[in-house]
Amino acid sequence: MIATFDAAQLEKGLQQFPTTSNNATSTDNPSELLKRFRQHTTLQSKIFSFFSSKIHCHRQKAPQLYLHGPLKPTFVRNVANYPKGFPQLSNFQDSDDAFPIYRRFGTLFSRLLLTKQDEIRRMECELEAMDRTDHANGDIEYLRTTIEDERREYPLPAGWTEGGRKKLLGRLERGLVEYADILLKARQLKAVDRPSNRDYQSVLHFMEADEGQLYEAEMDFIYEKEDLVTLRPGRDHGWLDVLIERFLL
């Protein structure tokens, strides 16, 4: 076990250094060992003070250091610093989660889907007519292998489009991919939350204040209230936010 010594106790003679053998030298007397103990303690203190001063100096300089030079002050956008119109409105809508409100264009998505759907329907009917024609003419090989259908000799049966079945299937592929893309995008937008009345009124008042942010035609979107969506993340606790805001105001 390693013995521990107290300097104050040693000075008063209340603690003695034990000797481990009968061959103790004159340097084992308490006064000599006490002197060595003090020297050791002083050296430890100097080392500790040296490193403490270096750490303190580093902490003072650290906030001003960066890999490529001094740190620049944080830039905070102020809506009032931007020109009136689209610059100021865009910064306002980005300044708070409650303000990014935009149109979904639900009616236009429906119109595109209906149009694309009808285009695909007509191509579908054309493909079925080709199949029935080959079946009626006894050209079964064209229905059982694509290789023979692509090698078929011209002229094609009456009423067929140029390029035959292969070209029609290519048009169908492009049409279906476009249709599916629009359909999925429309579903995603349909699932986006509508803005709360409080958020809507906040954006509306900002846009209408001081003779309006935009010209009349550009302002029209904000009045399409049933077609608006918000980018505000999750509104599971929206009612609590409203309650706190009302209490604070």
Question: Topology of this protein?
Answer:
Elements: H1 7-12, H2 30-61, H3 86-94, E1 101-103, H4 106-136, H5 141-144, H6 146-151, H7 164-191, H8 197-208, H9 216-219, E2 228-230, H10 238-248
Antiparallel strand pairs: 1-2
Helix pairs in contact: 4-7
List the defining traits of the structure above.
mainly alpha; two-stranded antiparallel sheet
Explain what you see.
With 249 residues, the protein is mainly α. Helix content is 57%, strand content 2%. It contains 10 helices and 2 strands. It has helices at residues 7-12, 30-61, 86-94, 106-136, 141-144, 146-151, 164-191, 197-208, 216-219, 238-248; strands spanning 101-103, 228-230. Strands 1-2 form a two-stranded antiparallel ribbon. Helix 4 packs antiparallel against helix 7. The longest helix has 32 residues, at 30-61. The protein is elongated.
Please give the share of residues in helix.
55-70%
How many individual helices? 10
- Whole-number mean pLDDT: 79
Instruction: Name the shape in a single word.
Output: elongated
Helix-and-strand structural type: mainly alpha
What is the element string, with H for helices and E for strands? HHHEHHHHHHEH
The percent range for strand residues is under 5%
